[in-house]
Amino acid sequence: MATHKLLLLPGDGIGPEVMGEVKRLIDWLNSAGIAKFETDTGLVGGSAYDAHKVSISEGDMAKALAADAIIFGAVGGPKWDAVPYEVRPEAGLLRLRKDLALFANLRPAVCYPALADASSLKREAVEGLDIMIVRELTGGVYFGEPKTITDLGNGQKRAVDTQVYDTYEIERIGRVAFELARKRKNKVTSMEKRNVMKSGVLWNEVMTQVHKREYPDVTLEHQLADSGGMMLVKWPKQFDVIVTDNLFGDMLSDIAAMLTGSLGMLPSASLGEVDVKTKKRKALYEPVHGSAPDIAGKGLANPIAMISSFGMALRYSFDLGALADKIDAAIAAVLASGLRTADIKSEGTTAASTTQMGEAILKEL
Amino acid sequence: MATHKLLLLPGDGIGPEVMGEVKRLIDWLNSAGIAKFETDTGLVGGSAYDAHKVSISEGDMAKALAADAIIFGAVGGPKWDAVPYEVRPEAGLLRLRKDLALFANLRPAVCYPALADASSLKREAVEGLDIMIVRELTGGVYFGEPKTITDLGNGQKRAVDTQVYDTYEIERIGRVAFELARKRKNKVTSMEKRNVMKSGVLWNEVMTQVHKREYPDVTLEHQLADSGGMMLVKWPKQFDVIVTDNLFGDMLSDIAAMLTGSLGMLPSASLGEVDVKTKKRKALYEPVHGSAPDIAGKGLANPIAMISSFGMALRYSFDLGALADKIDAAIAAVLASGLRTADIKSEGTTAASTTQMGEAILKEL
Ligand SMILES: CC(C)[C@H](C(=O)O)[C@@H](O)C(=O)O
Ligand SMILES: CC(C)[C@H](C(=O)O)[C@@H](O)C(=O)O
């Protein structure tokens, strides 16, 4: 059996707690002989700052580069609001994305039937929802240069951020979206602002070409990002795969996640390119939710998004799709049994702590 | 009685139809001696392109600069999808905003009780909703330079857009937001991505300073634009005034509008600075909805957003707030009577065409 090398980066806030439940799962998989994982742990975000005055240490970056996959908790919190911009908690995550070239961010927005009523949307608008947002993650305004604040004198400053996209960056994220669509409902909706942004013009042009040249069997639609956002709120089920740039993807994937009412349940995967020699790809898996400092350390956090992110690792990094399916089924069964952490608690259901939820899922397995 | 000079720019699609109902209203106000408007009409968007191969002619730009207020319909449609970027329909609107320095875009998101069920959100989440989005409109990535597509050879192109904000641009939009909040629920939420964008860092810093220095009596909160978008979907009533940049404002105001279920009802105002000498400000008023080419020319369009935009002109340009209140009341009364255009039609209500709706509102007045 192959040994898979994992780097666990719990991060801040509820990160360590929810990561604890993934560790429990890994230990069991190892001891039951179902799979073989070798784990190492590192610091990222505020916890790295507290220890080393950086958002991730060079040592942990080296471990990240050497790992088969990174399992990431969450970063940030008011404690680090005043630290210098370069070493703010988010910088650690952004560096991992950039240095590992994790250009493809997959964010499924799925509505768990048992939780549909937690959505602010009407049940009929979200029940059965299953869309996949494919967000470009290493380009655009997140990393473009110049990115500066200049003092102009007279009490005036000028801030500049730069959105940059090259053809190849749009092509490769397009391919990820089209490939995924083929295994789903075969439809891709590309979103940009071509009526205002040159990067939107190029994005639209390249998506159209990749589609025509390589994926004519998939349906491709184009939407302006603002009206796409509206349609997402109005009737999200019209979408299958949505592909969009880094900044629009940040907004749209969060909104899609919130629509489902299952925010505390949603995982994500950030993938690099497949290496032609090793056939491997760098990857980082993290829940969509943040570090929730207000409930940290209280055993209240929902570990499902974190466990489900580990499930995505099994699927996308280790070709253990069947095992990932079993984890998904275990989560669904535990929810159906009425067990709920505080974030998804409703009348008539049974309260569970972080560990109780993790244990219940493991027991189902 | 002062004479107010209006430039009507109906634009494309349903623009001319809904503008027709504003004309009907203006004619009546003039003939009843309630106010005195002098109107002129121009072309913008696709209709200007068809006539002059530009998105707005120099003649109409001169008229726009000379008018006391511009009443704008909508632009765009598939007919002009392939026209050159510089003369695409939207360019006319963007030029008006920029050349008239209309930096403050006011977008109320109000849920009409009679229409709450048209929302995809649950009634309790939107009933009574009344928020104001204040969007910066002449800066940011919409107008920053460089804004280019460069051919790199080897089949590669590079697209660049630039987000630029200076201190004074953030200050003046901040003041608009704080002033509005004082007349409302006294709360401003500023949204940016300071964890990723330098413009977000400056935006946050300047808002904090303006607040401290000039508006300490108003409550100021800061949200990251992505989580702000989530909160908007989850529980929009937690907001009063939201102030944000041009691109985030584009997305967030559209999403807020869609939440209400009243998209076809919502107006907007785009305002310049008050001239110290004349005490006047340049202004453009337009509905939030687009040109809806699919229903154009069929008498199906809802004229309420357009009429309500004219109401905003009365309020913000001509100090005729009482008259604007009357128009709002007339709209509410007509809705309460059960009259509905196709976009807001539901069981048990009476169908109305564009003109029937316009006439009914006028009759109420
Ligand atoms: C933490 C932050 C830098 C990050 C982003 O903006 O990409 C987060 O919002 C996300 O979506 O993963
Ligand atoms: C038509 C388009 C250029 C415009 C924008 O992006 O600002 C529109 O979406 C709006 O919100 O007024």
Automatic annotation (TrEMBL), chains A, B:
Q: Which HAMAP family match?
A: LeuB_type1
Residues engaged in binding Mg(2+): 226, 250, 254
Q: Which InterPro entries match?
A: IsoCit/isopropylmalate_DH_CS (IPR019818), IsoPropMal-DH-like_dom (IPR024084), Isopropylmalate_DH (IPR004429)
Q: What Pfam families is this protein classified in?
A: Iso_dh (PF00180)
The record's cofactor note says:
Binds 1 Mg(2+) or Mn(2+) ion per subunit.
Protein name per Swiss-Prot or TrEMBL = 3-isopropylmalate dehydrogenase
Q: Where is the Isopropylmalate dehydrogenase-like domain?
A: 5-361
What species does this protein belong to?
Answer: Bradyrhizobium nanningense
UniProt cross-references to SMART domains, sorted A to Z: Iso_dh
Write out the residues that bind NAD(+). 77-90, 290-302
Query: In which pathway does this enzyme or protein participate?
Result: Amino-acid biosynthesis; L-leucine biosynthesis; L-leucine from 3-methyl-2-oxobutanoate: step 3/4
Localisation: Cytoplasm
Any single GO molecular-function term of the entry would be: 3-isopropylmalate dehydrogenase activity
